[in-house]
Design goal:
Shape: elongated
Number of domains: 2
Number of helices: 4
Strand order of the largest sheet: 1-7-3-4
Order of helices and strands: HHEEEEEEEHEEH
Radius of gyration: 21 Å
Length: 206
Amino acid sequence: MTITSGYATLAEYKNWIAVRGLSGSVGTDTSDDASIEILIEGASRYLDRETGRKFYADGADVTRYYSTDDAECVKVDDLSAAPTSVAIDQSGTRSYSIISAASYDLLPFNALADGFPYRELRIAPSSLYFFPAFLKGVQVIGKFGFPSVPFDIKEACLSITQNTYSMRSGQSSGGNITVTAAGVVIRPQEVPAMAQRVIAHYRNVL
């Protein structure tokens, strides 16, 4: 199978377990490759669900709406790059007017340089605009998600994948693992402690 928006590749997984002396025959045997790819994608989607975020960038622009009671600031979902457009509904009629990029700042200022997304729009000091208090008062069009997969998210994905792979045949210290035709069912008690800490760090509180 092909891994879709996964946080690790099959090759990375095999290298990761080899470094830890866990590879055994898995490093050269390809018979389990399709199952391992299912586990990698399952671990990736588990991280998405548990954190309330996605650590890949949209391939095309997406339109999202936001409400705020702060005329100068609106918190948004993770933006993997500067938005294509930001528009505001000044009358509460769901009619949006685009404001120039110079009218707002993207925060944190150095997010992309550090490999992290923008999380907030703030009206620039020289701007005459403000964010309206209407529901869905702000429209943002852009690519959401993370600009690249953080290293610790990749590590958590690999760790969960290895844990679930080792449990695929039945019982482990954490409990039973269920693999279905649609993928893998991962329960919290089966997630390694390191991955749990990573999830707690990235959990979205927006």
